[in-house]
Amino acid sequence: MLHDVIEDSDITADTLLAEGFSNKIVEAIVALSRQEDESYLEFIDRAASNELARPVKIADLRDNLDAVRMSLLAPKKATKLKEKYAGALERLNQPMPSAAMLGQSQGE
What pTM, to 2 d.p., does this model score? Predict the structure, then answer.
């Protein structure tokens, strides 16, 4: 799947740009790729901040939460992942503050 291509292969953002993908699409794909130095919640918040990445990540998590898929896992693992993904979905479904609101809250 395209949303996992940077995370799951040797393909980079530069490769995607060279292949003709738009900056907007590549930025969304980068937002959907967890960085080595970030926590899971930092990653989710970064994905949520991109208008294209947010609905893709929501769909990805819903797919990951599929009952059939979960039934294939050990019960403890399934429970842990359900909690993790449900928390991520809750964050992704919250409205994101606008850039103007962020500036105001930081005293700018």
Answer: 0.82
